[in-house]
Amino acid sequence: MDLQKIMAKARDIARSSGTITTEQLNGMCPNNMEPEDIAALFAALRTEGIRLKDDEAEK
């Protein structure tokens, strides 16, 4: 997993609202992510102040 690339895309998406949807995040991530990679990704999102939303309707 390239956490740097995923976080760069997440920052771009979340720039205006501070959020990213689970669908958007899933689209950026490889299907074979290990649990440790997922934990690192969520920690990085929290550090950046990016909140995860369930879907587009919750904006």
Largest sheet: 2 strands, parallel
Inertia-based shape: globular
Beta-strand portion reads: 5-15%
Averaged pLDDT:
90
State the secondary-structure class: mainly alpha
Helix content: 55-70%
Strand order of the largest sheet: 1-2
Would you list the SSEs in sequence order as H and E?
A: HEHHE
Q: What is the straight-line distance between the termini? A: 28 Å
Question: What does the radius of gyration come to?
Answer: 11 Å
Query: How many H/I helical runs?
Result: 3
Number of strands: 2
Tell me the domain tally: 1
Uncertain runs: none
Structure in a nutshell:
By secondary structure, the chain is mainly α. It has helices at 3-14, 22-28, 35-48, and strands at residues 19-21, 51-53. It comes from Bradyrhizobium elkanii.
Question: Could you characterize the architecture of this molecule?
Answer:
The structure is a single chain. The protein is mainly alpha-helical and 59 residues long. It has one domain. The chain contains 3 helices and 2 strands. One of its GO terms (molecular function) is sigma factor activity. This is RNA polymerase sigma factor 70 region 1.1 domain-containing protein.
List keywords for this structure.
mainly alpha, 59 residues, two-stranded parallel sheet, 3 helices
Explain the layout of strands and helices.
Elements: H1 3-14, E1 19-21, H2 22-28, H3 35-48, E2 51-53
Parallel strand pairs: 1-2
Helix pairs in contact: 1-3
